[in-house]
Amino acid sequence: MKLFAKEEMEKVVHLDKEVIDVVEKAFTDLVKKEVQMPPIMRIDIPEYNGEVDIKSAYIAGYDSFAVKLSSGFFDNYKFGLPSASGMMLLLSSETGIPQAVLADNGYLTEMRTAAAGAVAAKHLAREHINTAGVIGTGAQARYQVKALKLVRDFDRLLVYGRTHEKAEKYKDEMERELGIEVTISRTAEEVVKASDVVITTTPATDPVIKAEWLHPGLHITAMGSDAEHKQELESSVLEKADVFVCDVVAQSIRLGELRACNSQRVIDEAIEMGEITAGSKKGRSSENQITICDLTGTGVQDTAIARYAYERLTK
Amino acid sequence: MKLFAKEEMEKVVHLDKEVIDVVEKAFTDLVKKEVQMPPIMRIDIPEYNGEVDIKSAYIAGYDSFAVKLSSGFFDNYKFGLPSASGMMLLLSSETGIPQAVLADNGYLTEMRTAAAGAVAAKHLAREHINTAGVIGTGAQARYQVKALKLVRDFDRLLVYGRTHEKAEKYKDEMERELGIEVTISRTAEEVVKASDVVITTTPATDPVIKAEWLHPGLHITAMGSDAEHKQELESSVLEKADVFVCDVVAQSIRLGELRACNSQRVIDEAIEMGEITAGSKKGRSSENQITICDLTGTGVQDTAIARYAYERLTK
């Protein structure tokens, strides 16, 4: 069993259309194939404001599958360390024997999460947009926007974050990397009202988006909430939307935006991303719709990206 | 983050009294300290008759904790491979950052499982025994009996296994290693009726021990059942016992012997091993009692042995 370091993976796996396709196929497989995807295992470390999540998914017919650990320790900045870390393990489906340790430190997760956002935007955002908006200024705020740029063209980006210094840093980096104008908004409201696509990337436990800010044609991808105490969108935001999509309904109900949803209609009408990517349901069907995608993250995406990475590492 | 191979671990971790103490302390910590021990995550691979179990436990105050993967692929013998494999990961409790991959291939699990059996026997078996009995002829059948020999002296061992060839091999090895007489019994009944301590180590889904075979002073450690469809002891066996102990009641109800128990009294009176090791409850209190210990395996044991191994590996 070999251990691969993050640097090795950064050489062969990039945020590009190939990775978006890998993740899109994972969503399709999630609905079309036999999948064993147990509920996420979470270990809370209250003393250090941390949690470790373990995800896995076995897709019938795949000769390997991943087990993914990701840590989120939100006091780590005090030690000058990033809050996220982790690894993926690839196991043989036929013998159960571990094949590789991908010590990616969360890199592959960042990739497959951003790619999922791109898949969501690909099917749900308006074809032509001008302005993208992002709530949050961390790693996913960067990756999600870069991924969005691969599926939608836009020349303006609005960003809101609670710490101005971080927002400044974000603006500098993204202007340089994307070559577009980045504006720091003073409120989340400004971002939502002026953007065609909004991505929320926060660990918020109180909603950051209110229903009154929504407008026709808007698409929101909410990827921050992945645990019972987190929520980025008010229930009324979900009720006001025309289309609500998530990666897995049961998971969104347990850990995502559907958890705090007061409307049974929204829950009943929720579409799973794989139904859209498999072609059985439509994404956006008119310019004026308000669409939402709630991403909590699935083991299927982890297995897909781990296999992709391993294939490219051992080529 | 370093990867340690099985051979390195075999050099520094052995089945001895030190390891039994490590595991005994783990049980005590399970009841005395704040422990985050989420339910076991299981991934079934039906096509290959396999399953992967993931266990973890964080004990407040410990600066690291383990995540343990173990695979049981029961067709592997067709490829000349062992059915069990796996690894342990050690993570920092303070930062969530992975410290080590212990590619033990199940070795540490074998150690901590056998050690748990020894802890059970230490508190539940009669002080003085003559004959030990084992149902099963695999790895745990070997380790459990060796561990028992560290806490109880006996000069005779009875073994029953479904495959005579394997039982012969077991007898040869164990006679050589323990220097005692090993007799192959033709039935499980013979083993139970003639032994002072019986250990069941099978993946049986139908009970292997019947109530009529029990006799005063007998202690049974059942370690085979660790999933919903497994069962080694009839419900009436549990009802006939004077003392029923398990590692974790909720887990025994979900995955162990209590799952098929028809008696609410047995469930209500079930004692957790940690209560005994912590001194709050008694184990065996008379020579004539029939005692049972159901071991399903806990993340606390994994964390304890992983930390112990890492400490000895990095000394």
UniProtKB/TrEMBL annotation, chains A, B:
InterPro entries per record: NAD(P)-bd_dom_sf, ODC_Mu_crystall, ODC_N
Superkingdom to which the source organism belongs: Bacteria
Pfam families assigned to the protein according to its UniProt record, in alphabetical order: OCD_Mu_crystall (PF02423)
NCBIfam families: PRK08291.1
Name the record gives this protein: Cyclodeaminase
